[in-house]
Amino acid sequence: MGDTFEAPKVCDGVIWRVLEGLRVLDGERLSYRTLDVEQIGSVYESMMGFELGRMEGRSLAVKPKHIVFDVDVVLGLAAGKRGAWLKEQTECDLTGAALTGLKDAKSAEDVVAAVGRKLSGTTPEQISELKVCDPAMGSGAFLVEACRQMAEALVTAWTDHGSMPTLPADEDPLLYARRLVAQRCLYGVDKNPYAVNLAKLSLWLVTLARAHPFTFLDHALKHGDVLGMGFTFDDTNPEATPSPRCIGSSPRTPATPSGSSRTLAARKSTRAPPTPTTATS
């Protein structure tokens, strides 16, 4: 009693893999609803048999099982035993130049370079290839927060993988990352043209760097209606025929959609006033 307990810090990725292992078996989703009490007890006992270990030295996680190993232990082994030890401990099989690099490694950086693409975790390229689209972006609050979080992850990936790009003399890495994310990853649409301009301004402010032009948002933030069916109605005339148009185009630009007759009929009947009825005694 009275003793303090410091809970170990476990990253979200590890927790996700634990839950995924409990939820999926051999590619099929498990249904705990169909398990008997004895089977649930067996699952519980199996889980209690695991222990949480803490690496004392520098560590890395590698694919395919995302198992963590101690880098200093690898460096302490004889060169010819490193590859076999890594495969036995983590199921990560290195061959060719990667295995040669591991044998010749003199530092933790050399081990990272040898393992290369076998490393777990997100690479800068994976982050840069993400595409985030807000179909009703409004003033761009969601895109701004996505820009901040993705930029932080990108800077972390640069640091972890030793691939920090050459930055302009007056540019901060985080600000530079925000500009790259905004340029390559973020997209948005809104049917209010004023909201589109406001979203552009919001992203420009969060990525602002003096003496650097910011002209690449026009291709990514567009005026249009991606949530509607692509039809407009004259609200002042319930009997008016709907005006078809392409999604994202100007309301004045007509277009003929295919397979829309049933949609038009359903919408028109929905908009029609109710038929009056006569009460009988």
Account of the protein in words:
The chain folds into 4 domains: 14-48, no CATH class; 59-118, no CATH class; 126-223, no CATH class; 231-271, no CATH class. The radius of gyration is 29 Å and the shape is extended. 42% of the residues lie in helices and 10% in strands. The chain has 281 residues and is mainly α. The N and C termini lie far apart (82 Å). It contains 11 helices and 9 strands. The strands form 4 sheets. Strands 5-6-7 form a 3-stranded parallel β-sheet. The chain has a two-stranded antiparallel sheet with strand order 1-2.
Spatial arrangement of strands, main beta sheet: 5-6-7
With helices defined by DSSP (H or I, 4 residues minimum), what is the helix count?
11
Overall body shape = extended
Mean pLDDT: 76
Radius of gyration: 29 Å
Termini separation comes to: 82 Å
Which class best fits the helix and strand makeup?
mainly alpha
Uncertain residue segments: 229-236, 240-260, 270-279
Query: Major sheet, described briefly?
Result: 3 strands, parallel
Helix content: 40-55%
Count of the domains: 4
Q: How many beta strands in the DSSP annotation? A: 9
User: What fraction of residues sit in β-strands?
Assistant: 5-15%
**Elements, N to C (H/E):** HEEHEEHHHHHEHHEHEEEH
Summarize the structure.
Helices cover 42% and strands 10% of the residues. It has 281 residues and is mostly helical. The strands form 4 sheets. It has a 3-stranded parallel sheet with strand order 5-6-7.
